[in-house]
Specification:
316 residues; alpha/beta; Rossmann fold; Methionyl-tRNA Fmet Formyltransferase, Chain A, domain 2; 2 domains; seven-stranded mixed beta sheet; six-stranded antiparallel beta sheet
Amino acid sequence: MMRVLFAGTPEFAVEHLNGLIAHPDISVVAVVTQPDRPGKRGKKLIASPVKHCALEAGLTVLQPTRLQAKHLAGFSFDLLIVVAYGQILKPEVLALPRIGPINVHASLLPRWRGAAPVQRAILAGDQTTGVTIMKMAEGLDTGPIISVQPCNISSNETSDSLFKKLASLGREALLHAVETIAETGLVAKPQPESGVTYAHKILKAEAKIDWSMNSTLICQHIRAFVPDPVAFTNQGETRFRCYGAEVAPSQPDNATPTPAPGTIVERSKTGIRVQCGEGQLYITQLQSPTGKGTIVQGSNLKNLQTKLLDPGERFE
């Protein structure tokens, strides 16, 4: 029986924890997750998805502000498995498991080391990503690779859909890695020295749409920020949040001057057509500032009761 201590926090990590819990030859001795945080509205503390999962399974849950070796002193475990925990672990913690610490990272390392590999892959227009299982080292996602599992990024992929795809992929890759370690030991090879990129943490300010960019880049921008922090654009003090977009077919050449970037060209059954720095796009899903923030889609955008979205108006 492989004894495992699990560290993780968001929904992405839950899929992996559930896989470990269900495996007949794995025993999860305890779960470490981030402390409860205040919700977006009000001061009520919200437990992490991993905490909810662990408590439902009857597991011991630890929530130190900063994980140290002393917090795990009462536990004996073969593997420390870390999935989107949210802290860089100290060497004293990495040295605790009998066999070693391993991590599930949502990219094909060494591309997109760091906090936001899924969003950065979509922002960059990558067509392929995947999951890397690695032995943890002191650096930021620099440890040797145990296994990789690639997957394609579809043309309409959002961070939400890609997280779900990679969570399922990561669960199977993790379980296979643990089974292999139980049979043959932990074998890993160094990461390539070339191709290193860093997926820096997403800042809310990055979600603002820059209409001077070309239509392809803006569509990638919108898809990358679903479900959070959600791309937005303003008209004066009114903020619109964009949940979906697609590149519009090119217009035939004519003598009409090209509108300024951000100008609404038309409202149609497809969505709201907007001029970009190069090309145009359709906003296909938009959160209305009225009606309790309802997300309006497709042909319903044509009939949305606001003059702010009429042709000729301009997003800032």
